[in-house]
TrEMBL record:
The keyword GTP-binding does not apply. It comes from Roseburia porci. SMART domains: HTH_ARAC (SM00342). Pfam families: AraC_binding, HTH_18. GO terms for molecular function: DNA-binding transcription factor activity; sequence-specific DNA binding. Gene3D superfamilies: Homeodomain-like, Jelly Rolls. Residues 192-290 form the HTH araC/xylS-type domain. Keywords: DNA-binding, Transcription, Transcription regulation. It comes from the Bacteria. InterPro entries: AraC-bd, Homeodomain-like_sf, HTH-like, HTH_AraC, HTH_AraC-typ_CS, RmlC-like_jellyroll, Tscrpt_reg_AraC-type_HTH. The keyword Ubl conjugation does not apply. This is AraC family transcriptional regulator.
Amino acid sequence: MNILEYENYHETKTHGDIVFPYNTYLCSIPLDFPRVPLHWHDDIELIYIKKGSGQVTVDFRQYKVSGNTIVLILPGQLHSIEQLEDCSMEYENIIFHPNMFLTKKADTCSTDFLFPLLDGKITVPTIFTPVYPYYEDIAAPIDACDEICKTKPQGYELYIKSQLYQFFFVLDNRCRNLVQPKKSNKSLDKIKIVLKYIENNYMDKIPIADIAEVAGFSESHFMRYFKETMGTSFVDYLKEYRLTMASRLLVASDSAILDIAAEVGFENLSYFNRAFKQKYQMTPSAFRRENVRA
């Protein structure tokens, strides 16, 4: 899976088989890519750091992470992955859909744990490090899934599902937070709609009037809201997002730079080249030469 699929899998890709939506991907920052922009999806995602250090943001809270840390991303949570200073980080993405565990006829597993977890009525930790009391219990079923995926013997899907149930058991039995879950954050829900629109339309013109309408704000209110929420202007965020996607295409495809610039929403090649060099301190062609693996 290339990085474009990684960033847009919740829109365009089904992980694993359609009847068994479970898959894993090995990634390296910055060797594969320097960052994964803020996004969200309907899958459960585990970011299992194997080596090095990096930064993961979940619902605008930043975490510095290092080897053997497991980050739990629940459906709908905004998250990003970035390089931390000059550090590198190797990690495994484990992605699966909760529908694997939700039966048509509700049972106790769904009504007493899965539904409340997915609805935010109960909370569990986001970060699990080796110093967490139940870290080994959390990591063991994930490690077991990784091990069987090396050979995928007959019936391995049953084994994976059983281990994920074990993972959920540990979350429910030992890791429930005692604090009450926070009330729904309407501002967070609104920015998720905006970011989803950007993900789906960044390659086209996005007038301020259109994106403000998506958010249900006037243009001036939207501009203030976006800057306060994201810490940058909408125009600058959109430019940065397009440049990030361009950097992925430069590495993942053989397309001409002119075509890549147009594909990510830049109508003027000279402006694209200047903006790209300002962000990455090198031209698009130099970036491609330096980052494409032999």
